Amino acid sequence: MPLPPSAAPDPIARFLDALARAAAASPHDATAAALATADARGAPSVRMVLVKSADARGFPFFTNRESRKARDLAANPRAALCFHWPALEEQVRVEGAVTPLPDAEADAYFRSRPRESRVGAWASRQSAPLGDRAELEAAVREVEARFPGEEIPRPPFWGGYLVAPERIEFWRSGPGRLHHRTVYVRRGDGWEVGALQP
Ligand SMILES: Cc1cc2nc3c(=O)[nH]c(=O)nc-3n(C[C@H](O)[C@H](O)[C@H](O)COP(=O)(O)O)c2cc1C
After folding, report:
1. How far is the CA of 82 from the centre of ligand 1 (A)?
2. What's the pLDDT at 50?
3. Would you say 191 and 132 are in contact if contact means Cβ atoms under 8 Å apart?
4. pTM across the whole model
5. Which of 22, 116, 170, 179 has the fewest CB atoms within 10 Å around its CB?
C-alpha cells in the first residue's frame, strides 16, 4: 500500500543526504550524473553533466544553450538523470520536465567557475563540428584578448536548465542481487512512495 502523499518523506532531502554521503565517501565528483535527452524523433542520447545541488524545484545543470542536448530539449523538453555512487553502491534516477533556469541563476553559477572555464565557455561552440584543434586555441586567444581582466560576463548562449522531478528512484545494492528500490511519484504537492522488485 503506498503511503498517502502527506505521509511521504521528502525525496529531495533523501537525495541531498545521499549526495553528502557520496561526497564524503569518494574523492571523485559525486555531483556527476548521466543526462538523457531525446530528439524530435524520440532518439535518445546521453552524456554526463554536473548537478551540484537540488531543491524543492528540482535538479539544475548548466551548459551551452546551442549544444546537442539543448537542441534536444527545445524539441522535447523532458529528461532523465542517473547518479551512480560506486563507493555507496547506490543509484538515483530522476525523470521530469525541463525548463530553462532564470538568467540570474546562470550568472551566479557562471561567476563561481574558474576563469579558464569561463573563457572556454565563450570559445567553444559546444557540439558543433571542429575542423582543427588550432581553431579552438585561436578562439580561446580571442576571448582572452577581449576580456583581459578577471571580469568575464556569462555568454548569452550559456545557461542553466532545471529538471523538475516527476519520479525519483533510489536504488541500493542488496545481497544476492535482491537490491532495494524505492520510487517516489509526484502526486499534486506530495509524493506517492512505493517499492519495486529488484
Ligand atoms: C564528469 C563530467 C561532467 C560534465 N559536466 C558537464 C556540465 O556540467 N555541462 C556540460 O555542458 N557538459 C558537461 N560535461 C561534458 C558533457 O558530457 C558533453 O560532452 C557536452 O556537454 C556535450 O554534450 P552534447 O553534445 O550532447 O550537448 C561533463 C562531462 C563529464 C565526463
Report:
1. 14
2. 97
3. no
4. 0.94
5. 116
